Automatic annotation (TrEMBL):
Residues 202-388 form the LYC1 C-terminal domain. Pfam families: GNAT_LYC1-like. InterPro entries: GNAT_LYC1-like, LAT. PANTHER family: LYSINE ACETYLTRANSFERASE, N-ACETYLTRANSFERASE DOMAIN-CONTAINING PROTEIN. It comes from the Eukaryota. This is LYC1 C-terminal domain-containing protein.
Length: 388
């Protein structure tokens, strides 16, 4: 029998108890378990909790639950957030000055789920609206709607976020409409663009390239973060590829603290897949600005090598993509995918057989809590490594 509709003011958002966290994972298993058994699915999350990118309170499960029974296992909806370190750049007023770059707290949202028996009552939408109130600085939010009662309690491990991102599998509108003050003002779509190469048969020699194992990649991220910071400082204030002509700010995640690396663990857990020779990245030996890292999408088969972070110039990109295809081929993978190549590289990609298209799944969406509006903000380095 359908449950009666509940007044939103009687509900709030709470950090899940350990029992609620497990219940939430059990609920999402049929949706996202893939070929894992329930035991492996729960074990994967338990292992992920210990990872650099999620430990020390960075990974939080949230539940929408009755205010008078916040620890119930019969909660209405749930989601997860990952606390991240990002960078934001504010354009300089003079073209000869670099943009001012600042470190910022940001959040990734994942696993939004309402059990089938509770769907269609506005629970997930309301939960997403309340999520702004625990992730952002409240000084940056509009007035809390009276009809929702009092704002959710702030949580020590959350808050202070300048922006938040997620990847929608239910279109743009669902998350865009969930704003902090009601309808509208939520997460907006940016760059849902993929480029895919079929992996051919040609082999190349390895001269001029260093293959990177998972451990070796850890040394790359610190250098990559320095490069991203520099890129942001020198980002042109206006460019035709931007969402708006003159962005008020540029925002990006950083790949450090296990943020880029955990994709490998997550995607291969309890499978017997391994990249040939354990290579999960490659870098040029002559150009410190040419490198890539990857993970794999094993489900649904056939497997795809998915590039998590890529850095190259127009000149070095063809060589880099040839190496990535080679890594895929040696591991029995027939396809390579890159998300959101920057403009200059898209054209080079086409010449190397890459097919670029707009995805209708995993839509990157961002909400900005700083000065200006989300519509004025450019998401820099909007690549697969930001996904969670
Ligand atoms: C998507 C989901 C979280 C919505 O939960 P809910 O509590 O029913 O959501 P709400 O009642 O707040 O909102 C329902 C709205 O979401 C829309 N929606 C639900 N599933 C959708 C889908 N797969 N694609 C597009 N829109 C969808 C509904 O059309 C409805 O829109 P309307 O209000 O204009 O009619 C729920 O259907 C679910 O858990 N699905 C499986 C997991 C999932 O796909 N999560 C999202 C991952 S990005």
């Amino acid at each position: 029998m359908a449950e009666p509709k509940i007044d939103f003011a009687s509900l709030s958002l709470f950090r899940a108890t350990p029992a609620q966290t497990e219940e939430s994972r059990r609920r999402t298993f049929p949706q996202w378990g893939g070929t894992l058994s329930l035991t492996d699915y729960l074990a994967r999350d338990a292992m992920m909790e210990l990872g650099e990118h999620s430990k020390d309170g960075k990974w939080i499960t949230w539940v929408l639950a009755p205010r008078d029974d916040p620890t119930t296992l019969d909660f209405m909806s749930a989601c997860e957030t990952y606390k991240r370190t990002g960078l934001v750049a504010y354009p300089s007023s003079s073209p000869s000055e670099p943009n001012s770059v600042h470190e910022a707290t940001c959040y990734g949202v994942a696993c939004v789920f309402t059990p089938p028996s509770k769907r269609g009552r506005g629970y997930a939408n309301h939960m997403m609206s309340l999520l702004h109130w625990v992730n952002a600085s409240r000084a940056n939010l509009p007035e809390f709607p009276e009809a929702w009662g009092t704002p959710p309690e702030e949580v020590a491990d959350a808050g202070g976020g300048l922006f938040s991102v997620l990847y929608s599998d239910v279109g743009e509108e669902f998350y865009r409409s969930a704003g902090p003050g009601g309808k509208g003002g939520g997460w907006e779509k940016r760059g849902a663009i993929s480029t895919i190469w079929e992996v051919g048969t040609e082999e190349g020699d390895d001269e001029g390239w260093n293959w990177l194992t998972e451990e070796q990649l850890n040394g790359l991220w610190e250098r990559d973060a320095v490069r991203i910071r520099k890129e942001l400082a020198n980002m042109p204030t206006s460019e035709s590829s931007y969402k708006v002509e003159r962005p008020a700010a540029f925002a990006t995640y950083l790949p450090t603290d296990g943020v880029c690396g955990f994709h490998i663990t997550k995607s291969t857990f309890a499978s017997n897949f391994s990249m040939a020779d354990g290579f999960w990245g490659v870098e040029s030996t002559s150009d410190p600005g040419t490198y890539a890292s990857w993970s794999v999408d094993l489900r649904p088969p056939p497997a795809t090598l998915i590039v998590t972070r890529l850095c190259a110039s127009e000149e070095t990109f063809p060589g880099l993509i040839a190496k990535i295809k080679q890594a895929a081929r040696r591991s029995g993978i027939g396809k390579v995918e890159v998300w959101n190549l920057r403009v200059g590289l898209k054209e080079v990609a086409e010449k190397t057989g890459g097919r670029t298209f707009i995805r209708n799944e995993h839509l990157p969406q961002i909400v900005w809590y700083g000065p200006g509006t989300t519509g004025d903000v450019e998401w820099a380095c909007n690549e697969k490594f930001c996904w969670c």
